[in-house]
Design a protein that fits this description.
Shape: globular
Helix content: 25-40%
Strand order of the largest sheet: 1-3-2-4-5-6-12
Mean pLDDT: 88
Oligomer: single chain
Order of helices and strands: EEHEHEHEEHEHEHEHEEHEEHH
Length: 354
């Protein structure tokens, strides 16, 4: 698999490959690619264009990459993944996606809502190529699959876990960027925690107003925010902040408090191993499965399109139980299982805004 990687801000991503790169993020050989044939699933495999933070975030982007690797193995495909550049524009994203489609990759997937304008423009130019976008449902094109999740449901369970584990009745939430998607995480978390203790104190902070300011890619900002919340008395802090969440986990571990991870099961992420004893759980969403299933649909000749939404009922979101201490807490596990059942039955309506 050909891949472009960069060293993540936290210093734990894979080393960059020594390749000649064009302005759109492809290799120099790719710049002389075949003329556009509208996409050829048999000629080449899938392409991923990563969100802010890129590979090595141990979270959102890495989950997408895991789905890519599985698809490559199962379907004997050649995949390609490309990194974002700092401060890039929508035009940069358009050029990147357009190039991938022209090279014959199918599907072409933008990892993150920031790709919405570019996906909309490029999909119209390549009607025979299937495009996917993770975490956005605004692109309504016949050849686009909107891969979205009920993040608020997993966050509700995380809120229960936090409230029942806290010894101070004081917990925290760190959001990467102040956008509607991350407000879903906050809303579910707060509602879940208050279902356990209506009077629980909850610290809340968003790192930046815009993604380009580093809210999803700055562990130092996450660490500073979490330390501030812990200094105020919070003993469990939940981060929905991509790569920045690594700083939250580091701060919690340093203070011997609990962190709750996001997107991937961060307890099992090797680069975070030294902090694992302070990672209570993670609110997961199956980005890997969404990527894999879209590739499979293309390979089967029946490309998925429209809104494809995952929830607790489909195991598309959930709460990781890799930490033995968390898994062994029978009282907490019973409460979580009851909440899952009540959400699935419609007895609990989880909020998406606070």
């Amino acid at each position: 698999m050909r891949r472009l990687s960069r060293i993540a801000a936290a210093g734990i991503a894979t080393a960059a490959l020594a390749v000649s790169v064009t302005a759109c993020g492809g290799t120099s050989s790719d710049a002389a690619a075949d003329k556009d044939k509208g996409g050829d699933a048999k000629a080449k495999g899938l392409a991923l264009a990563y969100d802010v933070g890129g590979r090595g975030d141990q979270s959102f982007n890495d989950a997408a990459h895991a789905g890519m690797v599985k698809a490559e193995q199962d379907f004997k495909l050649t995949g390609k993944d490309v990194e974002p550049t700092d401060g890039e524009s929508d035009a940069d994203k358009v050029a990147r996606l357009d190039q991938l489609a022209k090279q014959g990759y199918n599907p072409v997937i933008g990892v993150g809502f920031a790709y919405a304008p570019a996906i909309k423009e490029v999909a119209a130019k390549h009607p025979k190529t299937t495009f996917g976008i993770v975490d956005d449902e605004t692109v309504q094109e016949k050849n686009v699959a909107d891969l979205v999740f009920h993040e608020e449901q997993a966050s509700y369970l995380a809120g229960i876990a936090a409230a029942m584990t806290s010894k101070s009745d004081h917990i925290g939430f760190v959001g990467g960027v102040d956008v509607p998607l991350i407000h879903k995480f906050e809303a579910g978390y707060v509602q879940g925690a208050q279902s356990v203790n209506p009077k629980i104190k909850i610290e809340k902070q968003y790192l930046t107003e815009k993604a380009e300011d580093g809210g999803f890619s700055s562990p130092n900002l996450g660490k500073e925010a979490a330390k501030g919340q812990i200094d105020k008395g919070a003993d469990v802090v939940y981060a929905a902040a991509g790569l920045s969440g690594q700083g939250v986990i580091e701060a919690a571990a340093a203070a011997k408090k609990w962190a709750i991870g996001v997107d991937s099961d961060q307890y099992n992420q090797k680069p975070l191993a030294k902090y694992k004893d302070h990672i209570l759980t993670s609110a997961t969403k199956d980005v890997a499965g969404a990527v894999y299933n879209l590739v499979k649909s293309v390979q089967d000749g029946k490309p998925a399109t429209g809104v494809v939404r995952a929830d607790l009922g489909s195991d598309g979101v959930g709460l990781a139980d890799s930490n033995p201490e968390f898994k062994g807490d029978a009282k907490v596990q019973k409460a979580i299982e009851k909440a899952k059942a009540d959400i699935a039955a419609g007895k609990i309506k989880v909020k998406t805004t606070s």
